[in-house]
Design a protein that fits this description.
Layout: H1 18-24, H2 32-47, H3 50-64
Length: 68
C-alpha cells in the first residue's frame, strides 16, 4: 500500500497544532512581537477561531444589557 502525500507537513490534532500549543505555554523573551504577529495571532484567529468566539460572547453580553 502506498502512502498518499497530501502536500502538508503539518501535524494537526483536531483543531490544534501541538508545537504552537506548547509555544503558547512558554515565556518568550526574544522576538515575542514577531512570534505573536507571525505565529500566534494567525493560529488563534484561523485555527482556534478565538476572535470570533470573543466577538460572539461580547455581542450576546451586550444585548443582555439592553432594556426594551
Amino acid at each position: 500500500m502506498q502512502k498518499i502525500h497530501t502536500g502538508s507537513h503539518h501535524s494537526f490534532k483536531g483543531n490544534t497544532i501541538p508545537w504552537i500549543e506548547k509555544l503558547l505555554q512558554t515565556p518568550i523573551d526574544d522576538y515575542r512581537k514577531k512570534a505573536v504577529a507571525l505565529i500566534l495571532a494567525p493560529y488563534l484567529i484561523n485555527i482556534k477561531k478565538y476572535l470570533m468566539m470573543q466577538h460572539r460572547i461580547s455581542s450576546v453580553a451586550g444585548s443582555a444589557n439592553v432594556v426594551n
